[in-house]
Write a structure and sequence with these properties.
Nucleotidyltransferase, domain 5, globular, five-stranded mixed sheet, about 30% helix, single chain, seven-stranded mixed sheet
């Protein structure tokens, strides 16, 4: 198991989240691992956010949106302490986009001197977002992996005795499996973006909350990860791939549709 420390906040009641106090750092964070583009800039104790379409559009809109948000915050790349990005797992195209932009911006920052880059696991960011929004402390984080599979990780929040901080305990290795194979223990919450795609196939009896690896979740995780030495040089900022294969072949897609149709025919019907 891995321990990941993050600031602790009181567990809010649903629909009444309380923001975590930001660390007094200047940070740029972004995630393009899903169909939603998420960017956030932290200037000392203030945060600016931007959300837009992800996917293929992110490669064209990410840098202009970053520049606009930095301008709103009154920051430049010379005044940032670090660049934070969601490293995966997630969309192959989205991860490559985020990684390339993080590397390029970091290489060129501070007159070519460069700046630190902090890659953060997207499933951890999903768990942190669920904690922040709904007070979830035992989270089965899932993201749609397409190809009839999901990425999954079990993340458990451990508050510190002093009540000021806490840490996430996560699986050593993240999983990739069919939706039906995801196990949600009693007392845990399923969080992520995969329930809409797989409906009753994905732990239908488990409590569920929608959550994405938002840039603000990355910001909340960043100070402790930076303090723990998680930052790397731009050249070492790499995506986290769980699956090597990008897409199914035509024959594989046809076989999958046939199998799903056969399963639907065999499924019992109710009056």
């Amino acid at each position: 198991m891995r321990l990941i420390i993050a600031p602790r906040t009181p567990h809010p009641a649903p629909r009444t989240p309380h923001p975590d106090p930001p660390s007094p750092m200047n940070l740029l964070a972004f995630d393009t691992s899903t169909d939603t583009l998420s960017i956030a800039v932290q200037a000392a104790d203030a945060v600016w956010q931007h959300t837009g379409p992800g996917g293929a559009q992110a490669s064209a809109t990410l840098i202009p949106a970053i520049n606009a948000l930095l301008a709103q915050a009154g920051l430049s790349f010379a005044t940032l302490d670090a660049i934070v990005f969601g490293r995966g797992p997630g969309s192959f195209t989205g991860l490559r986009t985020a990684c390339a932009v993080a590397q390029g911006l970091a290489f060129g920052a501070r007159g070519g001197a460069g700046m630190p880059v902090l890659p953060v696991d997207t499933l951890l960011a999903v768990a942190e977002e669920a904690r922040h929004q709904q007070g979830c402390t035992r989270v089965v984080a899932v993201l749609d992996a397409r190809m009839d599979e999901v990425y999954v990780a079990h993340c458990e929040w451990q508050p510190a005795p002093d009540g000021a901080t806490g840490h996430w305990r996560t699986d050593d290795d993240f999983g990739l499996c069919a939706p039906e194979a995801v196990q949600v223990p009693a007392g845990w919450t399923l969080a992520g973006n995969a329930r809409a795609a797989y409906a009753g196939r994905l732990a239908p009896a488990a409590p569920h909350t929608s959550a994405l690896p938002t840039a603000t979740a990355l910001l909340r995780l960043a100070p402790a990860l930076l303090a723990a030495g998680g930052a790397v040089r731009a050249s070492e900022a790499l995506p986290r791939y769980i699956r090597d294969k990008v897409a199914q072949t035509t024959a594989e897609r046809a076989a999958l549709r046939a199998a799903q149709a056969a399963q639907a025919i065999k499924a019992p019907t109710t009056a």
